[in-house]
Design brief:
By secondary structure, the chain is an alpha+beta fold. It contains three helices and twelve strands. It has helices at 3-10, 125-128, 174-192; strands at residues 15-21, 29-33, 39-45, 53-58, 64-70, 79-84, 90-97, 101-105, 111-118, 131-138, 141-149, 159-163. The chain has a twelve-stranded antiparallel β-barrel with strand order 1-2-3-4-5-6-7-8-9-10-11-12.
Length: 195
């Protein structure tokens, strides 16, 4: 199956769930499911590297779908380039900022007026340990939302749900929506389990 067919398969729905796999050796692994519970994407981190390398595969073919490359040793204020795996074209950049927010840039590194913000920043500290709520905004309009249940209360596997049903017609690259979900699980999820 070619990437174009994989894209069609993955993005025929407007909501997906990301589930971290526990008890995996040496590396983190996430599964991405459609609303019917079908496994559509598998996310794997390359182990034993100073900088983050994330590979996203189509579940049915094991064909590489996306590649996310960290540009810094520490992810807390790092940036991440997102590439399509067929031709290694960069399609966007995520840069984590202070204040629990992210800047999203286009393939040329220019800010595209879209931000990824923590919706629960004003909640009390204890309530924030229950989970995270993030959203992507374009021109002050929410186009994608994320809810992450903290691993403190899910000892088997953390779970994130994403919903981009507000983005109609499709104005934002869904591959970047999926990349945002992966980075929330990896970077923000790791941070909040220490609260």
């Amino acid at each position: 199956m070619q990437l174009q067919a994989t894209n069609s398969l993955v993005f025929e729905h407007y909501s997906y769930a990301v589930q971290e796999k526990k008890l995996t050796l040496f590396t983190k692994t996430f599964n991405i499911y459609d609303p019917l519970g079908n496994l559509v994407l598998i996310v794997k981190l390359k182990p034993f590297t100073l900088k983050t390398h994330i590979y996203v595969y189509a579940a049915n073919t094991q064909e590489e779908f996306l590649y996310i490359k960290g540009n810094n040793i520490f992810n807390f204020l790092g940036s991440f380039d997102v590439y399509t795996s067929t031709n290694q074209d960069r399609i966007g950049v995520f840069k984590r900022e202070l204040g629990y927010s992210w800047t999203i840039k286009d393939k040329n590194g220019a800010k595209i007026g879209v931000s990824l913000k923590d919706e629960g920043i004003r909640r009390p500290r204890f309530h924030r340990t229950l989970g995270l709520e993030f959203a992507i905004y374009a021109n002050k309009t929410k186009i994608c939302s994320y809810k992450f249940l903290n691993t403190i209360f899910r000892p088997v596997a953390a779970k994130l749900t994403m919903d981009f049903s507000r983005d109609y017609p499709d104005s934002f690259d869904k591959k970047l929506c999926v990349s945002a979900a992966i980075l929330i699980c990896l970077v923000e999820g790791n941070y909040y389990t220490r609260l």
